Automatic annotation (TrEMBL):
UniProt-listed InterPro entries: At1g67623-like (IPR040338), At2g35280_TPR_dom (IPR057136)
Membrane-spanning parts: none
Protein name: At2g35280-like TPR domain-containing protein
At2g35280-like TPR domain: residues covered: 67-146
Signal peptide boundaries: none
Any Pfam family: TPR_27
Length: 148
């Protein structure tokens, strides 16, 4: 038989997560968020320290918006929560959000300059699709100017 060791109730131990610096926790949570918003929500549910790290602006800047529709087609019971979440992403200049807004503005009449600015910002932050679209727009627009 195995004997249990007696632990005194007065001694407290620090868990592994609690011993990590807050900046490192934020970076870990942001890395998870950049791959999957679902994983981010699950990580935030796992413990208070990760929940706090998940509220950091840097996480909102890096979170993946792949699971969210470019245009919300239907209303759901979580519409207000989703709108608040997307607002936080926009306020923190999330690269996917910048790309989507830039693309939308470029396709609207008269907002090309504002759209290009947002695409440029997203491209400079490393967003692959934004780099491609921004480059193609610049390439095509310079070709059209050369023809004139």
């Amino acid at each position: 038989m195995l004997k249990k060791k007696n632990r005194s109730s007065s001694s407290s131990t620090i868990t592994t997560i609690q011993s990590l610096p807050k900046d490192l926790l934020v970076e870990i949570v942001a890395s998870v968020a950049s791959y999957s918003s679902n994983d981010l929500f699950n990580v935030k549910k796992s413990c208070k320290d990760l929940l706090d790290a998940g509220k950091n602006n840097y996480v909102y800047r890096r979170i993946s918006l792949d699971k969210f529709s470019f245009i919300p087609w239907r209303r759901s019971s979580n519409t207000k929560k989703l709108a608040l979440f997307l607002k936080h992403c926009k306020e923190n200049q999330n690269t996917e959000n910048l790309y989507r807004e830039g693309l939308r503005k470029c396709l609207e009449n008269g907002n090309t300059e504002e759209g290009l600015k947002k695409l440029d910002m997203a491209a400079k932050e490393g967003h692959k699709e934004a780099k491609y679209v921004y480059g193609m727009i610049l390439l095509c627009s310079s070709s059209m100017e050369d023809e004139k």
